[in-house]
Design goal:
The complex is a heterodimer of chains A (about 450) and B (about 400). Chain A has about 450 residues and is α/β, with parallel strands linked by helices. Chain A has helices spanning about 115-125, 165, 170-185, 200-205, 225-230, 245-255, 285-290, 395-400, 405-410, 420-425, 435-450, and strands at about 5, 20-25, 30-35, 45, 55, 60-65, 70, 75-85, 90-95, 135, 140, 150-155, 190-195, 210-215, 240, 265-270, 275-280, 300-305, 310-315, 325-330, 335. The radius of gyration of chain A is 21 Å and the shape is globular. Chain B has helices at about 1-15, 25-35, 55-85, 90-125, 130-140, 150-160, 175-185, 190, 215-220, 230-235, 250-260, 265-285, 290-295, 295-300, 305-315, 325-345, 350-385, and one strand at about 35. Chain B starts with a helix and ends with a helix. In chain B, about 50% of the residues are buried.
Chain lengths: ~450, ~400
């Protein structure tokens, strides 16, 4: 019986609109985009202009400070627009897809037989390097570093999250190939983390060249930061790299077929989706192609990712690079008469102050209302209930507010990412914006330590 | 409600910054958010939010305080008519107490909220809900015959010096309700101590039956008059003189249950405070040099303000220890200190208020050492990793 890491603290938020386990046929998206803002800290240097023809895997832009990192096009076609925002920040590089897809060709080979440098070279050129993020700081990894281990969380416990067991079906060999490639990059182990509670695919459980770890518990058991702290805690000066399961499959495809295959299975979920299900799409697909004809008629919040950590996208926007999920929930911009005083049978709360606790197993249709005004920290002991790491969350947040670098470091800022605080942010009665605060703290540390 | 909403939408522009009444924007906003949960949506971070907010949290505490308040009103009537040797029906007693307690509540809330509104307006932020609870706590820790002007200035002192100069709700060091009480305790000691202040009308002394003592049980014990202690049932139910909210342990326990069940009050602080108090009580029993020391430890819970302080004052999240480990230490020391001050301090028979205030000052220090141990264990892990060879 393998050892199971039990996560005791956390909270499962059960929402209406979980994706049904069938893969529907998506309307081919006409447009695809790569969004530099998905990659925190990257300042893009464009390699194409409007009107350029590109093949799938061709470089669209590179990182200004590390030009060896390429960001490539998921499809072949013509660059139709480069959309900018305030202060000429590039928001999207949009490519109109050709009906017939052409691919940039890279080498093929067994990564186990290649040198570490050639594996890294392949990943950089093909545009798959950004799939590797690092801890500390939760940014795109630096190819010059050597991580002490690499972590892949093969299960996602966020609300309405996709089931990777379902998604990996058919891609088990490519997943293994990707793991082989990753095993060359670290001096230590590759960890594949799975859930003990629901059946896990042999694609994960029979993985080679990696250590399999079992976890059990509520969200955030699927968060890689929580898993890292249990298995191989990060210390100052060390690096750990993190990759999502679908990106591992893409890496396997790269070494097997020599192309950048950006296809992935995405869960279309949320209470406002009429038929929640999975779709096989190409990364960067337009939101319109993912949701057309499948959304109820009201004002909605479109989220690339899950409702806790995802990014808001416009109906005319595009799926994010790291996301395997598109969620659509109602906007909450309405007033509620005496809402804070009513019994609240339909309101979800971790506290039992609303009478919704009378029906514990129901699913909720939550909207985007803040449910209260912003206040200073008052209630204590609440964040600790949903924060399973050996770190004091409120004290760390206060250290970030005070911009106390030494205290942030002592309290463990290197070990956290914004997503680890998502549940704390959800339950906070003072409506603090914690993920933004943690991002600010991480940026401060990056600047200080560079 | 639609017509109310439309009305508010119509007059809202006048109250925003730049409008005709822009100076009163915080006041308007306070009333608007009192009537309606606002329509603000999430912009950064999580897209969904828990339905709990500060208003709801404070509401839960007020609901938890209602049993103690209602019994306090009843007891005020009961004790008064006991002192003049007459009997009345249940509703007459409750009504009498209600009329005597209501002015205290009104003065406390009006003074406190007025000051809070002014500060919020001047500082340009929203009115905080913290005083909704303090405003009810202040009368509950006062003797029934306290003059209204004393309630007013002590409330003003507590809100201004005890809370606002530190930055408002969430920033204060000392419990505001106890700050108000302590202010009166030190500024007007003769009005706040003695045998005559705990029962309505006893100070005036009209028609009091012969030989009636209005002393609280702890007051008697402090003067070595142990014969008049109420029996355990009376003490538990609360039929004795004391501050308005402190007498009924049953009502306080109902409040404790509400606070713990909804997750608003810390059970760790409550349990550890009781444990601390009992342990010192038992220790003193071993010595039993006078009547007060010999009082069985469990009776310390039944008499005086110990339980009220444990459940409603020590658990104030802003002023208590803020780490979970710290809460155990803080509660235990509070309980210990309360009984020590009660029994060993000759000047005043009750020790809970002073114990809580003193531990409020110590709470940041307790938290500091708890967090330090976390920091040290992280450093030890780094040192161990540096020494271990990389394989």
């Amino acid at each position: 019986m393998p050892q199971v890491h039990k996560i005791k603290k956390g909270l499962n938020i059960r929402l209406v609109g979980e994706a049904e386990k069938l893969i529907g046929k998506a309307n081919s998206s006409e447009y695809y985009a790569v969004k530099p803002l998905d990659f925190h800290g990257i300042i893009p240097r464009l390699e194409v202009k409007e009107g350029s023809d590109v093949k799938a895997g061709a470089t669209l832009f590179t990182d200004k400070s590390r030009p060896e990192i390429h960001f490539t096009s998921p499809v072949s076609g013509k660059v139709t627009s480069i959309n900018r925002g305030e202060r000429r920040v590039i928001l999207e590089v949009v490519v109109k897809a050709d009906p017939m897809q052409e691919f940039e060709l890279f080498d093929t080979g067994n990564p186990l037989e290649m040198s570490r440098e050639s594996v890294i070279e392949m990943l950089l050129k093909s545009g798959l390097w950004p799939a590797i993020r690092q801890r500390p700081y939760n940014v795109v990894a630096n190819p010059k570093d050597t991580p002490k281990s690499i972590f892949i969380s093969a299960f996602d416990t966020s609300p309405l999250a996709p089931d990777y067991d379902f998604i990996i079906q058919g891609g088990e060999n490519e997943f293994q190939f990707g793991i082989d490639a990753l095993s060359k990059l670290t001096s230590g182990k590759v960890h594949v983390n799975v859930s003990d509670e629901y059946s896990t695919s042999s694609g994960f459980t029979k993985v080679k060249n990696a250590q399999l770890n079992y976890f059990r518990g509520p969200h955030p058991a699927g968060n890689v930061g929580v898993q890292i702290q249990r298995i191989d805690p990060l210390n100052k000066g060390e690096f750990i790299w993190v990759v999502g399961p679908q990106d591992v499959i893409a890496m396997g495809n790269l070494f097997k077929k020599g192309i950048y295959d950006a296809s992935r299975v995405v869960a279309i979920a949320g209470s406002e989706i009429l038929n929640p299900r999975y779709l096989r799409v190409i990364g960067g697909a337009s939101v319109k192609s993912l949701t057309e004809g499948n959304v109820s008629s009201q004002v909605h919040r479109y989220i690339s990712g899950n409702p806790l950590t995802g990014t808001q996208v416009m109906p005319g926007g595009f799926l994010g690079f790291y996301d395997s999920q598109l969620t659509v929930i109602p906007e909450g911009d309405h007033f509620e008469f005496f809402g804070w005083a009513l019994p609240g049978f339909h309101k979800f709360s971790i506290s039992r102050s609303f009478w919704s606790w009378l029906s514990p197993n129901r699913k909720y249709k939550l909207d985007t209302n803040m449910n209260g005004g912003h206040r200073s920290f008052v209630i204590t002991g609440l964040y600790e209930k949903v924060f399973p790491m050996n770190i004091y969350p409120m004290q760390l947040l206060k250290a970030i507010l005070a911009e106390d670098i030494d205290l942030m470091e002592s309290l463990g800022i290197y070990e956290v990412a914004e997503e680890d605080f998502a549940l704390c942010e959800f339950v906070c009665p003072s409506k603090t914006e914690m993920q933004a605060l943690v991002r600010k703290g991480l940026d401060l540390m990056m600047k200080e330590m560079s | 409600m639609k017509s109310l909403r439309r009305f508010i939408n119509n007059i809202k522009p006048d109250f925003e910054k730049g409008g005709r009444f822009g100076k009163f924007s915080a006041t308007f906003e306070a009333f608007e958010t009192f009537l309606f949960v606002p329509d603000k949506v999430t912009t950064r971070g999580t897209h969904i939010r828990d339905s709990m907010d500060m208003k709801r949290t404070m509401t839960v505490v007020i609901v938890a305080l209602l049993p103690a308040l209602l019994f306090g009103m009843y007891n005020a009537g009961y004790q008064h008519f006991l002192s003049i040797g007459e009997s009345r029906s249940f509703w007459q007693l409750l009504g009498y107490g209600f009329i005597k307690v209501l002015p205290l509540l009104a003065v406390s809330y009006i003074t406190g909220l007025a000051i809070e509104f002014i500060f919020a307006q001047v500082r340009g932020h929203e009115v905080n809900e913290g005083f909704l609870v303090s405003g009810m706590l202040i009368p509950l820790v006062m003797p029934i015959d306290v003059p209204l002007w004393m309630v007013a200035i002590s409330t003003a002192f507590a809100v201004v010096i005890g809370k606002e100069v530190f930055g408002g709700t969430g920033m204060n060091v000392l419990n505001p309700a106890l700050t108000a009480r302590a202010f009166l305790f030190f500024a007007y000691p003769s009005e706040m101590t003695g045998d005559k202040i705990w029962i309505e009308g006893l100070k005036e002394g009209k028609n009091i039956i012969d030989g009636f003592s209005g002393a609280t049980p702890l007051g008697n014990l402090a003067q070595n008059i142990s014969g008049h202690l109420p029996n355990n049932l009376d003490a538990f139910l609360g039929f004795m003189p004391g501050s308005i909210g402190e007498t009924s342990k049953l009502a306080i326990l109902i409040g404790a249950f509400i606070l713990i069940y909804t997750g608003v009050g810390s059970w760790k602080i409550m349990v550890s405070t009781i444990a601390g108090g009992l342990s010192v009580g038992l220790l003193l029993n071993a010595f039993s040099a006078n009547d007060y020391m010999a009082l069985p430890a469990y009776k310390h819970l039944l008499l005086g303000g110990f339980m009220f302080g444990t459940v409603f004052m020590a658990t104030d999240p802003v002023t208590a220890a803020q780490t979970e480990t710290g809460k155990w230490i803080y509660g235990f020391l509070t309980g210990m200190l309360a009984i020590v001050i009660r029994v060993l301090n000759p000047a005043y028979p009750e020790g809970m208020m002073l114990a809580i205030l003193l531990m409020n000052v110590f709470a940041p220090l307790i938290d500091y050492y708890v967090v330090e141990s976390n920091i040290k264990s992280r450093l030890r892990r780094i040192k161990k990793a540096a020494v271990k060879p990389m394989n």
